[in-house]
Task: inverse folding
């Protein structure tokens, strides 16, 4: 399990990917798997942890350099681990790490990559170029629909630890917006919908980037009334309280939401979600059961009027059944097994191994024929050179013996 | 020859690396080599050119994403080229590209990387992590001295096309500073030295980054007199005129200058260089012959007083003999030959190939023993499975025949 070097796992504050990875490693261990986490900083999970940076480097997020050196450092660790303790699979959550996939394939290790972000031009271009080097896991069906030609190995929805979210059936009279102040998240539409039915709105979230500040001043501030509250950034505790107390979460996204963690966090608290259809929204919210999925902003007020038809217990039940960390572990285990089965069936890694065998063979031939041309007269077969070079870690005889021993123990 | 996707080769404006690469490809072709350039935009050199981006993306310089996707795209091209037309070596000038070195090694191709930047913590960490995956070429002896433990294959000084620089023996009465307005380049020391001997100074260079602007206001502006001229950024033509007309170039660097192109550009115009010792300076300037190399700023004025002892013709001769593009081509050819000889001698690629053979063998064993465990009863040897799979591009029999044919033609 490879994570970027910017935050610890689990993260102390920011770090959406790191949070999911922390839950995933725990869930995999609970299923009896051995997991090694490679990242930055200190041991903070129950897994074996190999830090390739002494401390996380959040201040370097967005720079090219840490991505590239991280990939180089991680590859050394994985080569060492594969040689020493044996690995089955590499699950990489970084940007540059998947460039190592051919080196991992040479060790017999397939590389799994979770598509944490939206299927935009950048990620699509990268994962298209990497082709079957990597086995992609989607976090929503929508991602796979948007790019069916990529090398998907499965879909596993993100998840939460349901027991860490307080269930509350008696709600306040206000709606909640919780997310970035960004046109993609469209809190101005939440304000318009809430006001159309006389509901106050609490708005909580990040407003730090220039685009967020500009959008807030232009679209959000003019729509605020005395009854609305701009909360700012909510920490883990405040987030849970805000989610549990709200009459509903308003989620009027105007983009291809790759998953939408806040929707399952709200539902875990028994809070319905009133959303616009976008990205994974219809996969997460069961329309009419755990909230409403509207096609247009002018349908949001009517949905708010029908909130009494939604049972808070049904909201929580939806998360328990579909978005709990237990599902996360089972889902990724199934994806890993599928990837390994591809390899076993000779459709993938094995084919690659055979192809590389052939390429190595041809490369050795080229080298030897060049050497022969230069040192004419000195004719030696490759096998003889191999045996006398002393460079092989495992001699031909050792390999045969090893095979026999393995066959005997199988 | 792999270049970053931000500028064309040769560059239309900025692009130090791209300028060197343009000269290098020309010089290699002049020596009879076939060169394929992989980058962005249009064909602008005499070599075969494969664009992996339809246009350069200078606006994305500094982002992680283009580095990573560029490496993924380039690898596909090199795999295709190696299969079709045969390559001998990959020379990569990008940041993330060297992560592909193991994949190139699997094709029998060594990877050469030029250390274009200073030996700082970042580059040192990256090239240390990559170890003998890559064969480094220094652009100065100083770089190798600073990091002797890296896997150096040679040193090739940067170069210019001497004939594109005008020689002028009769000089003006002013000194010239040409470089970034940055504490590392220290133009304020140039002002102090020139004024100490009553010489006006022309200052030309970039002043765009916040640190450059702040430094200019704090250290440069207060030292300017009515006789000095702040020229701004000089284009190719203005640069040549400024260099040819100046009494000398003042180069009072306060950092580990990796090479210092402007020194050889000045000398090509017959203009002496008065410099502070830093990085590659003493390798480029012959003290007392093509200028003066001072240890401390307070020695600069005395050097300026002794400029009449420097012969402009000797300055140009130094560049003709040591820093012309002909030397660049010969130097890299020698480095490439050394890298290929390492491979032929079995000290490097061959050792790697053998090691990977061993690893592949072990990986195949693991896969097969797993398959055997699952489908107990179905016992088949690996050789039999290989022969019947139909997946091999080259069957065992074909390989043997190929070997015989090659041996016969050698």
Result:
């Amino acid at each position: 399990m490879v994570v970027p070097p910017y935050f610890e796992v689990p993260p102390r504050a920011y770090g959406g990917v790191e949070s999911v990875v922390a839950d995933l490693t725990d869930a995999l261990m609970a299923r009896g798997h051995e997991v090694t986490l490679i990242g930055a900083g200190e041991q903070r999970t129950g897994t074996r942890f190999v830090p390739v940076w002494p401390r996380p480097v959040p201040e370097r997020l967005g720079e090219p350099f840490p991505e590239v050196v991280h990939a180089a450092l991680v590859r050394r660790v994985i080569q060492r681990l594969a040689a020493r303790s044996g690995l089955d699979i590499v699950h990489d959550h970084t940007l540059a790490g998947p460039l190592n996939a051919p080196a991992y394939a040479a060790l017999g290790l397939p590389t799994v990559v979770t598509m944490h972000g939206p299927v935009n031009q950048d990620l699509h271009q990268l994962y298209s170029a990497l082709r079957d080097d990597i086995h992609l896991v989607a976090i929503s069906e929508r991602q796979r629909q948007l790019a069916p030609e990529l090398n998907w190995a499965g879909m596993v929805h993100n998840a939460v630890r349901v027991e860490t979210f307080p269930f509350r059936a008696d709600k306040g009279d206000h709606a909640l917006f919780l997310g970035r102040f960004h046109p993609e998240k469209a809190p101005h539409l939440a304000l318009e919908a809430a006001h159309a039915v006389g509901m106050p709105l609490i708005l909580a979230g990040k407003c730090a980037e220039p685009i967020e500040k500009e959008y807030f001043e232009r679209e959000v501030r003019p729509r605020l009334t005395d009854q609305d509250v701009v909360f700012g950034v909510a920490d883990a505790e405040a987030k849970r309280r805000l989610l549990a107390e709200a009459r509903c979460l308003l989620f009027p996204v105007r983009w291809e939401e790759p998953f939408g963690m806040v929707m399952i966090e709200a539902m875990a608290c028994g809070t319905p979600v009133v959303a616009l259809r976008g990205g994974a929204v219809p996969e997460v919210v069961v329309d009419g059961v755990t909230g409403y999925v509207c096609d247009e902003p002018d349908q949001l007020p009517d949905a708010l009027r029908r909130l009494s038809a939604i049972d808070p217990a049904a909201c929580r039940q939806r998360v328990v059944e579909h978005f709990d960390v237990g599902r996360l572990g089972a889902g990724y285990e199934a994806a890993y097994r599928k990837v390994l089965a591809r390899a076993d069936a000779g459709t993938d890694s094995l084919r690659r191994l055979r192809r590389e065998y052939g390429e190595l063979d041809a490369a050795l031939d080229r080298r030897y024929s060049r050497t022969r041309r230069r040192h004419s007269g000195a004719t030696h077969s490759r096998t003889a050179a191999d045996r006398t070079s002393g460079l092989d870690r495992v001699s031909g005889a050792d390999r045969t013996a090893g095979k026999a021993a393995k066959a005997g123990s199988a």
